[in-house]
Amino acid sequence: MKSSVQSSALGSVAPGRAVARGSAATATSSARTPRAPQRPSPYLSSVQTKALFASSLAARMERLSAEDMVSTDEAAALAGTTRVTINAWIAKGRAIGLTQTRRGFRLPRWQFEPQCWAALPALSQALGTVEGWALLAFLETPLGGLSGKTPRQALEQGQLERVLALAGVEAS
Predict the structure, then answer these.
(1) Phi first, then psi: what are they for 142, rounded to 5°?
(2) What's the CATH number where 154 sits?
(3) Number of domains in the chain
(4) Backbone φ, ψ for residue 138 (5° rounding)
(5) Is residue 70 situated within a structural domain?
(6) Domain residues for 142?
(7) Is 161 inside a domain boundary?
(8) Structure confidence by residue, pLDDT tens digits, 44-73
(9) Is 12 contained in some domain?
(10) Distance between terminal CA atoms of the chain?
(11) C-alpha span between 96 and 105 (Å, rounded)
(12) pLDDT digits over 113-138, tens only?
């Protein structure tokens, strides 16, 4: 029994009207079909990505060498403990330790001030991270919810509950 429609690499057509795919007839019909406008890619090019990483590294190196940064040994002296304890605190989110390009951590000295020191464990928990750069970025970024102040400034002014609420929003 023969079918009245041929189906092959030529496509499905009525008998006697075999048209190859990609033929002029197909091209003409697809040329009439309106195409969606091309959207720009949401991704960075490799050149842009390399530039971003380079600027990020430069910014991090600058922050690590800032005057308010101390080594783990200096932090241990400030806190009256050992370097091993400081490293354990960093791992638990009890202290902000910034990784360097080489071994070891640098820590912002101001975190050992009473208002900040008391807030760090709860802040780390509210943000859901113990990563030092993430904690520092949150604390040093001005927020609209704090009228343009940084969370660090708000902590120094006794606004712990407000900072923790904003950290919870940031984490979600």
Answers:
(1) -60, 140
(2) 1.10.1660
(3) 1
(4) -65, -50
(5) yes
(6) 66-171
(7) yes
(8) 777 777 777 777 888 889 999 999 999 999
(9) no
(10) 65
(11) 9
(12) 999 999 999 999 999 999 999 999 99
